[in-house]
Every structure is written in C-alpha cells, then in structure tokens.
Amino acid sequence: MHKRILLINPRIGSTKSLTPHLGLAVLARQIERTGHSVVTLDYSAEDSTPPLEKCLREYGPVLVGISALTPGADVVREIVAQVSQWKEDTVIAVGGPHATLYPEDLISVAHLSYIVQGEAEEKIAEIVESATLQVSPQIIPCGRPSIHDFPAPAFHSFHNYQNIAVYPLLTSKGCPFNCSFCSIRHISSRVWRARSVENCMAEIREARKHLPRLRHVRVIDDEPAVDRDRFHEFLTRFAQERNGLSLEIVNLRAKDVSEETLEMMKEAGVFEVCFGVEHGHPFVFKEIDKGESLEDIARAAELVKRSGLFLRCCFIVGLPYDSYERMMESIRFAKRIRADFFHWNSFIPLKGTRASEWFSANGRALATKERFSLPGSGGFFVPEPSVETNEFSREEHKKAYVLAVLETDSYILTPRGLVDIVRVMFRYDLQGAGLRSLLRQPKCVYKHALRFHKAGLLSYYVRRYLRDGLVSVRARRTSG
After folding, report:
1. What is the spatial distance between Cα 377 and Cα 14, in angstroms, rounded to a whole number?
2. Domain coverage including residue 337
C-alpha cells in the first residue's frame, strides 16, 4: 500500500541553520526507494516552509517523523500534540540525538508510537512498512550501518529546495577520540567509518544538476581527517572538479593542520579553517583529554594565519574544574592565537560523558536539560548556565561568558543587540570591554562580509535575509 510520509525538523528559538537537514534528506531517499512519497519540512533552515497545519491538511500523511534535539524537546512534544489533534490515528515517530540519548524523556509522551535511536538509514524502510499506532511508544534501536554506499540525500523533498546554496556533505561518521564533554560516541560511535572519495564526488556532481543556486559545500564530519591520505585525496579531487564551488571543513583538529594540508585546502576553495580549542587554561584543557596540547593549537593557529586563510576557533565556558580566574586565562589564550572568529559555548552536561559524571559529583544542576543553551530570540544572547560549582557560580559563569564574547568580538551588532549589550555591560560592570568591542564592530562586520564573499555567498545571504524578513512580516500580519 502506498503511504505518504511527513518528516519534520523543528525550529528551536530564533536559531536558523545555514544548511538543510542532511539526516532527514537521507531518510527521505530511503523512503522513496520503497515506493512511498515523502515531504520534508525543515523549519530550521527555511523561513518560507509552509505551516504544519496546512501541510497536514493538504498532504494527509499517515506517518510523521520528527528529528529531536535536546534543547528543542518541548517543541517536539508540541508538534506531537498538534499532529494527534489533527488526526488521532496518525503514526508518529521521533528520532535524532534526543531520542538516542534520552529515550526515557519521550516514553510518557501521549500519541507517540515510536522512539528511533541511532542511525536509521537501514531501518527506515522497515519502520515505514510495519508502522502501526501504538498505545505507548516502542523503542527501535538502530545499528551502525556501513556508509560505503551512503544514499544520496533527497533534498527535492524539501520546500524551496532550489534555493539551497550551502550543501552539507558527510564523508565519514564517528570520531575515535574521547573528549570528556562530547556525546558523539553514543550517537555515531567512536568507530570511524569513511565513504570512498569517488562516492562523495558523485554526490556533489548529482547535487549540482538539481540545485541551481549551489555555491558552497560544507563537510560536516565529526572528524574528517582521521585518515590523512584519504583527506588529501578528497581535497585534490574537489580542487579538480569544484568549478567555482567553495569548500568548508567544520571539525578539524589542530594536529590535522600542516603546511601541506593548508595549501591543498586553498586549492580546493577552502577560505577558513575551524577547530575546537575548548579552553585555554592548561589544567582545564588537560582534563578534556583531547589528545593534543595547547602548544599544538598555538602552532596550528600560527600556520593558518600565515597561510592567509581565516581562522575560526570554538571555546567552552564552564567545563569541569573551570572557574572565573581560569576563564580569564582562557580568554587571554584566545586573544593570543589571533583567530578571526570565535564561538563561545556554554557547557552542556550530556548523558554518558565523563564531564557530566564529574558535575554529578561536584556541581549543582541549574536548568533542565531542555533549557541547556536554548537559543534566544535575537539580540545579544547570554545563555543560562546548566550547572554551577562552589568555584564557578552561575553569575560568574555568565559574566565570564559575556566578557569572552566582548573581548573577542564574537557577535554581529544589531539594533536589538545594542540595547542588550548596554544592559549586560552595566549589569556585569564591563563598560570598558563593551565600549572597546563596539568600536571594533565595523572591522568585525567587514571581516564577516569578506568571509561570505570568499565563499561566494554574500549576495545570496543578503537576498535570503531580506526574503525571510518579508515572510516573517507577512506571517505576523496574517496572525494579527
């Protein structure tokens, strides 16, 4: 019997994704191969995606699948309720990281039939064929499928797929390293599984046929350079076939960076190198167990700066053993490596990690996990800490976060953001840091514009934000 399937990626707060949801696109391809039809609603990436009630009414799915992140768990529950109110006998399944890490949170959700854990590419056809309404949710564990013949994503199932300009490419899964804060081993495992370079290039060639606005490829692997020879082969092939496409590698390690690799990346159209530092204090950094040193990071940063590529670095506030004084050292280290862009994240104690276990013994929880790093609604966002210790209180955590963002210019000023910055400057007695940061904003905006220009995306994003703003205005008028 032919079935209509609806897949949903919810929007969490005001956060927008630059790329469409790869996991749902892969599941959509597998569903199509069974002869069923599928529509994907990616609210995180596309503002013009039609309202859920309209799609339910016009499309009439018999099975609805929802991807769940932990910060968006409440949104997922609302969608389940909305779908069941539309039609009580609709089968509803929830997958994604939250379903994998916290299935116990979903067991009591009314009208939910299935909780899908892990990578569902090989299981989705069976789920679709046998799906029936359940009195209480059934947990469906999925294995770790081989990705040698990874299915090409069906982005044509997405609304306005022709507008996709940034393409998410997965060349491998898993990460063999064991950082104390990271839960990836519970989601895609520590076993590193790689696709062939030819399989990756064939996917890009196929994407170019169907995505007329494609300008940029973003490699989203957990660790793409575990096999350096294979990584170099991919860079060489991409350089040969890119035909104007730019390339981005989002999860490199400092030890992956060499002069040879950087030259190959430049040839492949890479304009920026991004790697995680996490913390600049030697003891806090050592306890992460990244398998590299702060000296490795400083060396890699210097190589990137000499190469002429942009450097983006990620840090975390509030790791085990952190304190306000140690965060000041982390900020000093960040400024010393002279990255062009920084991301400061508030620590999230994810289930099954050594960092989470440390906080269970040494800290106090301040928020439910659904609120961990929940995105704000625009402006200058200060995340609510999820945990605190005697050495690093909630207010110290927030002040350290604000100071880190101001000292490294990790924001783009907006009218609403200006009001927020003035407010936090006075709340945390950081007027000097705030004023200096505001004076540096023109240079910061210029660097971001130059970054988008090098990616071939500047005009695209100007048009996109104008279009999305128009859609939002129309939606408010309609609802009003």
Report:
1. 5
2. 165-462
**AA identity, residue 272:** E
- Give the residue from 399, 398, 404 showing the smallest Cα distance to 331: 404
Residue 427: partners with Cβ closer than 8 Å, 6 or more residues away: none
- Residues 64 and 90: their CA atoms lie apart, in Å, by 7
Residue 179 contacts residue 288 (beta carbons within 8 Å) = yes
Please write the tens of the pLDDT for every residue from 321-339: 999 999 999 999 999 999 9
Radius of gyration over every alpha carbon of the chain, rounded to an integer in angstroms: 22
Question: Residue 411 corresponds to which tokens in the numbers above?
Answer: 């924001």
Last residue of a domain, one of 126, 141, 156: 141
Structure tokens at 469: 């703003």
Other CB atoms within 10 Å distance of the CB of residue 380: 23
Same domain, 169 and 137: no
Residue 153 DSSP class: P
Residue 169 main-chain phi, psi, to 5 deg = -120, 125
Whole-angstrom CA distances from 48 to 166, 297, 480 are: 17, 41, 18
For 410-458, the pLDDT digits (tens) are 988 878 788 889 999 999 999 999 999 999 999 999 998 998 888 888 8
The owner of tokens 């090409």 is 152
State the virtual CA torsion across 328, 334, 340, 341 in degrees, nearest 10: -60
CA angle 119–164–145, rounded 5-degree value: 15
The CATH number of whichever domain residue 105 belongs to comes to 3.40.50.280
pLDDT digits (tens, 9 = 90+) for 243-281: 999 999 999 999 999 999 999 999 999 999 999 999 999
Contact 155, 210 (CB under 8 A): yes
**Angle, nearest 10°, between helix axes 259-267 and 228-241?**
30
What are the CA-CA distances from residue 209 to residues 39, 109, 453 (Å)?
Answer: 20, 42, 23
| 154 domain-assigned | no
Q: Of 140, 146, 132, 71, whose CA–CA distance to 100 is shortest?
A: 140
The token pair that represents 51 in the structure block:
């309202």
